[in-house]
Amino acid sequence: MTTNNHPANGPVSLDRLHQISEILSKAAKQSDGGNLGYAMADAVKVINGVIARELVRREHSVWSQTTFGDVDPVGPLKHLSKEALEAAAEPSDLSEWADMQFLLWDAQRRAGISDKQITLAMVEKLVVNKQREWPEPKDGEPRLHIIELPAPVVPEPATVNIP
After folding, report:
1. Torsion angle of the four alpha carbons 151, 138, 94, 65, in this order, in degrees rounded to the nearest 10
2. CB 3.0 to 4.6 Å from 146: which of 27, 41, 84, 133, for a disulfide?
3. Mind giving me the DSSP string for 92-109?
């Protein structure tokens, strides 16, 4: 009986990302300067960005759980709408964007939704959105897709035969 339990077949842990980054970084330094060396150096940059973001996400998760306890995702989602309005008022304020990201992460975690599930849903939703009709863009206004209303049902005129 063969099992497919090699670590390469499972999720990549944060520790494994650190290992991969170190391996690629060393290999890039030992490279002869060709495209492979540049590709490895670029991969290290991407991995290090993923690690940095994941560390912030985990730290926020611990803080949020400690601070707010076991609550459902509705509170963070309602709070998100408030932060979105604040970001709309000050689009260049990165702290508002950070608040929105924290609240999205928090609601997602509290709902038990994985990044993989979100990504798959995004792929599906993008297909739907691409098939919809959209009005012309207008700065500062939401653009809601055009909903085609069904044609109204108009009864045929009644015909009465009087003898």
Report:
1. -10
2. 133
3. T-HHHHHHHHHHHHHHHH
